[in-house]
Amino acid sequence: MIRVLPDLPSGSQFAFYCTLTVIRVDDFSRELLVLMVNPRITPRRTEFPRLLPADSLLETSESELALSNLDALRLNALKLAPTSTSAAELHRMWIPCPHAIKRKHLSEVLDELAKDDQPQLWNDARQARLLRDFKLIPNSGIRLTCTAYDTASKLSLVKLNAFGPQIQIARFSKYGSRYYVDLVRLPDEVTDRVIFDWFAEHGAPPTCVLPTFVRNGLPSRERTVYFGQDQELSVLDPSQDNPLREIEFSSPDDGMVKLRACFVNHEVASYNRVTPPSIRLRQEADAARKATESAASSPSSLFSPSGAPIPSDPKGHVSSLRKSIFCTTPDLPADSPLDSSLDLKADSSGSPVAPSDQDTSPTDDVAMNGLDKARLQFNQDLLSRYQVVAFQETKLSS
Length: 398
Known about the structure:
Layout: E1 12-24, E2 31-43, H1 55-66, H2 70-77, E3 91-96, H3 106-113, H4 120-127, E4 131-137, E5 141-146, H5 149-155, E6 159-161, E7 166-168, E8 180-184, H6 192-201, E9 208-211, E10 214-215, E11 218-219, E12 223-226, E13 246-247, E14 262-266, H7 277-295, H8 320-327, H9 338-347, H10 362-367, H11 370-397
Antiparallel strand pairs: 1-2, 3-5, 4-5, 6-7, 8-12, 8-14, 9-12, 10-11, 13-14
Region (Disordered): 284-316, 337-367
């Protein structure tokens, strides 16, 4: 059957999804697969126009280009660019708002932040062209730059209106871009001075050591260590694949004794994906121990589902679980080979092995009638069930 797709609205994007249906058409388990293709219409995302220069500006620039007048061309080409500012006067600011910017285009966010209902401090900074370089960080917030330190300090912790709820500018600090690390799982013997001395001895004296979290005068045990530069130091990142992930401080009572290692969490999140050496060594030791135990296990041909060998029961012993299987076994003719297989099982001192396909020769298979094949298959199934019962009894007894 051919199905005609409906007309799609102009200016819309669409994708196809398929539905696979199984239909039983008769009593002989014959099935018909029906594939249905359905269009899924999604609205096209709004397109926002970019800033275009005026024709007069481009005409002047191309005229200067034809005359090879580079100085005049540079002056005209940078006419619409923000005012040049020294790097020392560029102060990065941050607005954490992952939910407010979800599925929003930067143009939508800029329109929202430029509305008149914003605080007067924000409007004054915007009209003075002190705010620039807005950038959306997906699932995080808005990054921007302020070209005046006093204005950035005043805008610290100011709340703005954005798509309904208010968003708050993060606390501004002139040194907010300085590199830092967090020390977690610190031993009780490690003091703040011990932390400072360790980094100073390794050529990276910190500018500040303080508790990572303080709430209502209650400090945390974790410590944050700040350094006097924006990039990580060599002691923190000896190589790209081997950053500093743990520190073993010396005991204050005995410098020859190493305390339990504490972990180092970097400002750069990618460094924290490297496993600390102590955890890596423990994982390798556990893997080696498991491999040794697996190699030392008994090479018996009969194993439980977990890989352990199934021990045989004492001769003549019949458990309750095994009796339950025998009670559910249907009666077979007197000449059934089941009795002989059970006797073989009871008299065997080793672990029984279920018959395989190689135990029966092709000529015997041809000579066997349908009843004999059924009896042989039943015996094989019964022995398999016996192995499972023996394994369950072993677990119950242990």
